[in-house]
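Late entry, evening session. Most of the bench is empty. Finally got around to the prediction I had been postponing all week. Sequence below, unchanged from the version circulated by S.P.
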Amino acid sequence: MSTASTRLPEGRYGRSSDERADRKLKVAGTVLGAVLLALVGFFAYHYVVESKISAQVIAFDATDDAVKVHLEVHKDSGTDGYCTLRSQGADGSEVGRADFRFTGPATRIDKVVTLRTTAKGTTAELLGCHTG
């Protein structure tokens, strides 16, 4: 006695609904992946291109009412901007914050700036630099 097969003959009735759903999911995943990759590339490009000023704290020396910060700034020629510095006390509270402006045609500025504090600062932290 032979048993009847429950499978449909291949190629006779087109794709099954599972195959159509799999294809739609693959297409949707590919499109979403491409869009995500394009967005990441767009934001990365603008982050790099728009960063016209970068800086780093080389060293700092703290006294009871000020922190002298050796700051190295790299910027595009003719770009004006400022860098924000802050200092914290031993307990972690902020004891000083100030913006320091940089102008002129120089592309590299190596400068010691004085950040006035309300108490003895134990840190000198560069919060960021901006054009403007």
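Two things to note before I forget:
The mean pLDDT is 86.
The first helix runs from residue 17 to 50.
Will write this up properly tomorrow.
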